[in-house]
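Below is a filled-in request sheet from our internal design queue. Each sheet records the structural input a requester submitted and the sequence that came back. We keep these sheets so that new team members can see what a complete request looks like end to end.

REQUESTER: design group, bay 2
PRIORITY: normal
MODE: inverse folding
CHAIN LENGTH: 517
BACKBONE (tokenized):
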């Protein structure tokens, strides 16, 4: 074991260089893998009955103490580079997990399970310590990395685990091919699914606690030619909900939106693709208008965040509690404001619009490319044009772009084609440069950390109502909103975000259609 003597002291803690000092086998063997990963605490050595552990910051001191209590030794915390701690934990403890597997000369051996495999064998495989630890490791690392989704993907000769972080998929782990069936079976057990059924898609839910945080996981499993593929959506119940001010909406649009959400009745829609932050916007709106004199009810699938003071209903299609059926009951609960998680069909759309026409304020989401497209989408669902014109108040389209990492941001000269595509001219850039992330440990070398929302606010005025009744195209409505209302499109909002140094031209073009501003 190398010396723990340090070249410097930081905030009263000893500093060690993990490129020089290597963890001892005794210390590593003492610490459970999921414990080290969850707390990001690296055991370094056990000497004279004291376990030395490396932490990335003094704020992790409590985690070091907790590790000591669990392993039964007093701890001495030393500081080290967080990036080295993370890399060594993953390298050492994943190797430990894999070493717990039965020895196989061929990694493909045992990879396939056929339909005759005994159920007891599946359960036994899923309960093996190495499999349990691997699944725990996947969940813990995903939560620590801030992932919204986990993908477990089988291929002919390998299994990939990928995380979606800030809207982009990235490789995370690569378990041995032979572990695939056992990992899927373990996920099925946690999600209370049928582990014997391997030919049909299945859905389930998992509730886990990681580092004191309650996490809900929605699981979807589908069969592929190389085995079952699992995708898990992570819903962190302890994540603080954002207020309207924190959404990133520009002040002029925010002022108009605040006025709109206080109308006494009507339908307000948030539109965009899956994962664009629609539900977050609706929750922020509900928090903004809540008071002790309002009765707010929601029906959602799933209930992503629990909001104090608001009654929330979980859709349960298997027992007949659909959006439409639940909405019928909600209307009889004397509500002032109703939030419908998503308008998916004619029945839900029709009930929502009639609720608005009878004096309720209804919030919901819809999948459309832009804000004006919500009108034609409702008409396509079979809702009468005069009902849409009478009830719809406004729609807000949104997209999420990755935010430039503040830690490694630096000026650069952008490509002329990218600037032209989002409408930035030379005169808009006095210095001729924009900002971009060079890549660092904090952003995992991507140059981006966190996300920023772009908005397009479409208000239904009298001319828009006439266009709706006439079944005009969404392009005609959109052109009117730009010319007469001064509506800023998603691309136009992205242009301003680029000039503010919040994101890059390439990011805006990735999520926005290239269209006239």
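RETURNED SEQUENCE:
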């Amino acid at each position: 074991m190398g010396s723990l003597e340090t070249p410097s002291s930081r905030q009263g803690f000893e500093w060690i260089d993990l490129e020089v000092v290597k963890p001892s086998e005794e210390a590593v063997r003492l610490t459970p893998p999921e414990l080290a990963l969850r707390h990001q605490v690296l055991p370094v050595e056990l000497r004279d009955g004291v376990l030395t552990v490396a932490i990335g910051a003094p704020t992790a001191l409590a985690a070091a103490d907790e590790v000591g209590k669990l392993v039964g030794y007093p701890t001495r915390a030393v500081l080290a580079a967080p990036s080295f701690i993370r890399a060594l934990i993953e390298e050492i403890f994943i190797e430990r997990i894999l070493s717990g597997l039965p020895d196989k000369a061929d990694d493909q051996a045992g990879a396939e399970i056929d339909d005759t495999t005994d159920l007891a064998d599946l359960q036994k495989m899923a309960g093996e310590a190495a499999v349990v630890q691997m699944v725990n490791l996947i969940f813990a690392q995903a939560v620590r990395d801030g992932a919204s989704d986990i993908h477990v993907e089988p291929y002919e000769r390998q299994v990939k685990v990928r995380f979606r972080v800030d809207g982009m998929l990235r490789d995370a782990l690569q378990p041995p091919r032979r572990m695939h069936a056992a990992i899927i079976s373990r996920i099925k057990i946690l999600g209370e699914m049928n582990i014997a059924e391997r030919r049909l898609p299945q859905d389930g839910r998992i509730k886990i606690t990681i580092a004191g945080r309650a996490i809900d996981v929605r699981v979807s499993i589908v069969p592929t030619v190389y085995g079952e593929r699992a995708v898990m959506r992570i819903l962190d119940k302890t994540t603080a909900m954002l207020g309207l001010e924190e959404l990133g909406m520009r002040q002029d649009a925010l002022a108009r939106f605040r006025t709109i959400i206080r109308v006494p009745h009507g339908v307000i829609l948030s539109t965009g693709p899956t994962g664009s932050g629609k539900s977050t916007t609706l929750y922020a709106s509900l928090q903004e208008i809540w008071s002790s004199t309002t009765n707010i009810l929601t029906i959602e699938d799933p209930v992503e965040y629990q909001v104090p003071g608001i009654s929330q209903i979980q859709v349960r299609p298997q027992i007949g509690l659909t959006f439409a059926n639940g909405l019928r009951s909600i209307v009889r609960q004397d509500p002032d404001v109703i939030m419908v998680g998503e308008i998916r069909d004619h029945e839900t759309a029709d009930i929502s619009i009639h609720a608005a026409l009878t004096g309720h304020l209804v919030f919901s989401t819809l999948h459309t490319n832009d804000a004006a497209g919500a009108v034609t989408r409702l008409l396509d669902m079979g809702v009468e044009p005069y009902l849409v014109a009478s009830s719809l108040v406004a729609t807000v389209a949104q997209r999420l772009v990755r935010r430039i990492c503040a830690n490694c941001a630096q000026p650069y000269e952008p490509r002329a084609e990218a600037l032209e595509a989002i409408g930035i001219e030379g005169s808009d850039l006095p210095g001729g440069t924009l900002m971009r992330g060079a890549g660092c440990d904090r952003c995992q070398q991507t140059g981006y950390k966190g996300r920023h929302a772009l908005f397009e606010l479409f208000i239904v005025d009298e001319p828009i109502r006439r266009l709706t009744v006439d079944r005009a195209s969404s392009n005609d409505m959109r052109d009117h909103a730009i010319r007469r209302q001064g509506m800023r499109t998603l691309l136009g909002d992205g242009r301003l975000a680029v000039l503010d140094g919040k994101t890059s031209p390439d990011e805006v073009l990735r999520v926005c259609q290239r269209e006239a501003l």
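SHEET NOTES:
- Confidence is low (pLDDT under 50) at residues 1-9, 102-116.
- The first strand starts at residue 9 and ends at 10.
FILED BY: M.R.
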